[in-house]
Amino acid sequence: MFKTESHVNGKVSSSTEKLLQELALVRAENRALRNKLDGNTRGSKTVRTAIVDAHQLIMNAFSGMNTGRQAVGEQGITKWRWAWAVAFLRYAGIVSMDNRKWRSGLDFIVKDLAECVSLLERAGTELMDRPDGYRMLRKLLRSV
Hints:
The chain is an all-alpha fold and 144 residues long. It is 62% helix and 0% strand.
């Protein structure tokens, strides 16, 4: 972050004014480029985050830690990121489709860590390669 130079009369120096104009132009170009991105590209960021958070949930589960939304929230995962991660775990076939125990922890179907990691990686590759990966994951999303 740069500091704006001002003179006694309150005017900004010409070099700083040029920098501010250029910054405004770059921000406008970034906004325009972001708006041109298709939904699949935007959604892939959500899918990538869900994959990373799902790995965290798996590590918590096999370390004997709680995988419930509130417990994981203390580790910095928001409730929506947790919900997306659980949707990914459902997609991978690692947790059950039932969401009754989301406060206390998840109901894991797969009990072997190596198998969980293998299923996570396979499902992650599959979702990232699919153009509708975001929509597939969204179908399994439950409100928390």
